[in-house]
Amino acid sequence: MNVMREEDILTGGSMSLEEATDRVASLMSRYGNLQGAALIEPMVHEEFNGKITMTSSFGTEAAALLALVAEVDANLPIIFLDTRKLFGETHTYREQLVDQLGLTNIKIMRPDENKLKADDPDGMLFASDVAKCCYLRKVEPLQRALTGYDAWLTGRKRFHGGERDALPAIETAGTRIKINPLAGYKPEDIDDIFEHRALPRHPLQAEGFLSIGCMPCTDRVDPGTTDVRAGRWAGQDKTECGIHYII
Ligand code: SF4
């Protein structure tokens, strides 16, 4: 399934593709050497005031970016994709973090019920077509959630490897702009944020999960595994759910 549809290009952000490219070049020249809260602050309060959101999986490392964002603006809209295939522990953890960090604006997005009935009536699509399942349960709901926004913050990091190896701090996402404040952070930087703010860990981390997504597509990893995303779609030719191809 091609998730980069022409209508998405036309109806995405308020910029044209060319304007978004120029804007990223301009932003990179001014802010490209910043990271963490130092980068979040001007994006939220100056460059995209009211036009920026954030996505969070509320997975194992999510609390780090959520904490930095809460310190800049606890009212920032935060999109959470409830695929209806998540671990119950992720929902519990989300509620715990929202309370602890004082986040006020969580937008829980779910798949379109009619589309699920038509294309995944028994809830087993993940077993036959992961690309289509991720499209129905993640990409399309996120596309809806991003309506009205020109920019979004993500928690991706270069140390996750794969396609994230060369992740810039600021990049185009078609007609929108993605900001990656933790792109250059190392695992020890993430640990520091948890430690200094006494952030709770995702309950499944202690059970051997390094990166946590949907239940059917997330496995435990062997102790000592350095590939953070090794447990996602293990054994399949898939490393990303597709939401970061949204334009
Ligand atoms: S991660 Fe698995 S269950 Fe979740 S949306 Fe993608 S294919 Fe479906």
Describe the structure.
This protein is of the alpha/beta class and 247 residues long. It has a single domain (6-245), classed as HUPs (Rossmann fold), CATH 3.40.50.620. Helices cover 39% and strands 9% of the residues. It contains nine helices and six strands, in the order H-H-H-E-H-E-H-E-H-H-H-E-E-E-H. The chain has helices at 6-11, 17-31, 36-47, 62-73, 88-101, 113-119, 125-128, 130-145, 187-197; strands at 52-55, 78-81, 106-109, 151-153, 170-173, 176-179. The chain has a six-stranded mixed β-sheet with strand order 3-2-1-4-6-5. Helix 3 packs across helix 4 (62-73). The chain is globular. The two termini are 15 Å apart. The model is unreliable at 1-10 (pLDDT under 50). Residues 83, 85, 126, 130, 133-134, 137-138, 213-214, 216-217, 241 line the site of iron/sulfur cluster (SF4).
Structural class: alpha/beta
Approximately what portion of the residues adopt beta-strand conformation?
5-15%
First CA to last CA: what distance?
15 Å
The run of helices and strands is HHHEHEHEHHHEEEH
- According to CATH, the homologous superfamily is HUPs
The total strand number stands at: 6
Which sheet architecture does the biggest sheet show?
6 strands, mixed
User: In what order do the strands lie side by side in the largest sheet?
Assistant: 3-2-1-4-6-5
What does the overall shape look like?
A: globular
Oligomerization state of this entry? single chain
CATH architectural label: 3-Layer(aba) Sandwich
Number of domains: 1
